[in-house]
Amino acid sequence: MVQNILKNAGKIVKNATGGVINRTLARLTGSGIQTDSRIVQARARWSGKGAQNDWRVKLTIPNGSPLETYFFQNNAVLSPLEENKGIFWPLTPNMIIQHSANFNALAQTHNNYPFQAYQNSQVDQMNIIGEFPVQNQTDAKHWVATVHFLRTITKMFFGADDNLKGNPPPILHLSGYGTHMFEKVPVIVNTFNVELRGGIDYISTQQDSVYRSQLPPSEQFKLDAENDLDATWAPTLSNISVLVTPVYSRDTIKNFNLKKFASGELSRQEGIGFI
After folding, report:
1. String of DSSP letters for the chain
2. Among candidates 70, 237, 244, 238, which has minimal Cα distance to 152?
3. Hey, which of 86-100, 211-225, 244-258 has the most confident mean pLDDT?
4. Shortest CA distance to 218 belongs to which of 226, 210, 206?
């Protein structure tokens, strides 16, 4: 008897709360706010995930590349990205993907329909647009490192870079959504945009705090007093969009096989990442 009463009470509470939520979403819809927003579906994930289970959208330095050491060794600014060797979107981003098969129209005299001569196929530029929520100083360090990483990998090796001088911006690997979607696809970054909104809070952070913790207390106090550690302010919510283009070497293209591609073999083959 008591169990039935408790069970029925649980159903009443569940139905009541569900009704409140539904009415709230209905009011949001009526005011022009979409109910499929981040309030319901979004889950921010800044922490690292296992390589096999992590299907977040990422742009990373290729495994084994000397650029891993070049960019991340003893680098306080990019240290939050060292574990993943690149950036990732903590919320599922919007992606715009387009594949093209190009044909040339051959016009014939006294003919209503031109012939279509095949020219080539290509994967066009892909736009990745996602929100970056920042809730504390750790998130703020990730945000600052993400923006600085994008600034870095859109620059060529120039000036005082003795060993790499003259090289173009590095090629990255795009991964996300599992093996048969994007699995270490080689891409170049064409452009990126960062939105700094007004009317929201900003969180202060210091990327050099790792360096500060290694100093003796007297030096830490001196730095704090002189404010030598530059503070950076990160918005609590911003959009970061990146435009990338897949790029394959001549040797890689020689390995293309349409039958293997159709079976999914080439999408998961190490070092190729055909899409």
Report:
1. -HHHHHHHHHHHHHHHHHHHHHHHHHHHHHTT--TTSHHHH-----S---TTT--S-EEEPPTT-THHHHHHTT-TTTGGGTTTTEEE-SSPPEEE--EEEEEEEE--TT-SS-EEEEEEEEE--EEEEEEEE--SHHHHHHHHHHHHHHHHHTS---TT-TTTTT--SPPEEEEESSTTTEEEEEEEEEEEEE---SSS-EEEE-TTHHHHHTS-HHHHHHHHHHT-S--EEEESEEEEEEEEEE---HHHHHT--HHHHHTTHHHHSTTT---
2. 70
3. 86-100
4. 226
**pTM, rounded to two decimals:** 0.72
pLDDT tens digits, one per residue of 57-81: 999 998 888 888 888 888 888 888 8
Residue type, 137: Q
Type of residue numbered 93: P
What distances in angstroms separate CA 51 from CA 18, 62, 175, 180, one per listed residue? Answer: 37, 14, 11, 15
Q: By mean pLDDT, which of 36-40, 135-139, 238-242 is the weakest?
A: 36-40
Cβ-Cβ contacts under 8 Å for 217 (sequence gap 6 or more): none
What is the sign of the dihedral through the CA atoms of 222, 227, 230 and 233?
positive
Q: 105: which 2 tokens?
A: 């129209």
